[in-house]
Amino acid sequence: MHAAFAVVSDGSCDLPAAEAGKNNIDVVHFLVSFDGQDYRREGLEIPLEAFYQKMVDEPGHYPKTAAPSPEDFCEVFRARAAEGLDILCICISTKLSSSMQSAQIAAKMLADDYPDTRVIVQDSLCATLMQSAYVLEACRLRDAGCTLQEAADTLAGLQRTARILFTVGSLDYIQHGGRIGRMTGLAGELLQIKPLITLQDGEIHSSGIKRGRRRSIEGVIGLLVSYLKDNHLTPSDCRILAGYGYDRAEGVRFRDMTVSRLSEEFGGTADLPLFQIGATIGVHAGPTSIGFGVIQKADLP
Question: Does the record carry Transcription as a key word (predicted)?
Answer without folding.
Answer: no
